[in-house]
Design goal:
This protein is an all-alpha fold. Helix content is 78%, strand content 0%. The radius of gyration is 18 Å and the shape is globular. The termini are far apart.
């Protein structure tokens, strides 16, 4: 038992895997604590960055989620989920232009994954203007 605890304390992957199990069991505060410990062991450990950021996003703590998701995007710039959730958090925090930048990167990544195919514009100019206008009113 003591060996297992020692390994968990030193290994961010083990901490993050255990945190994921706790999160699936709806033991969210315990999961959050383990993801934080994983980041203390390795500040660039992607699964802990993303999962802790997503934890705060789901709790509508966007100002806590954004820096974690930005760090996760820095570690894995091409990760679709990170860019998408980061864009959603930025949008909820009222930073629509930053959100659109990340969503465009998601769109660009989709295009790169489908060489030779052309997808329609994901965010037409009219929708962008409408989104910005709605954000300014609130």
């Amino acid at each position: 038992m003591i060996l297992v605890i020692a390994l968990l304390l030193a290994d961010p992957a083990a901490l993050s895997a255990e945190a994921a199990k706790l999160a699936q069991a709806q033991r969210l505060e315990e999961a959050k604590n383990l993801w934080e410990k994983a980041l203390a062991a390795d500040p660039k450990f992607f699964p802990a960055l993303f999962n802790l950021g997503f934890f705060h996003f789901n709790a509508k703590r966007f100002e806590k989620a954004i820096p974690l998701l930005e760090r996760a995007a820095g570690v894995r710039p091409a990760d679709f989920n990170t860019r998408y959730v980061l864009g959603a958090a930025l949008s909820q925090a009222g930073r629509v232009d930053d959100a659109l930048r990340h969503w465009r990167q998601v769109h660009h990544g989709i295009l790169q994954a489908l060489p030779g195919r052309r997808l329609p514009a994901l965010y037409p100019a009219r929708q962008v203007r409408r989104t910005r206008a709605c954000t300014r009113r609130n």
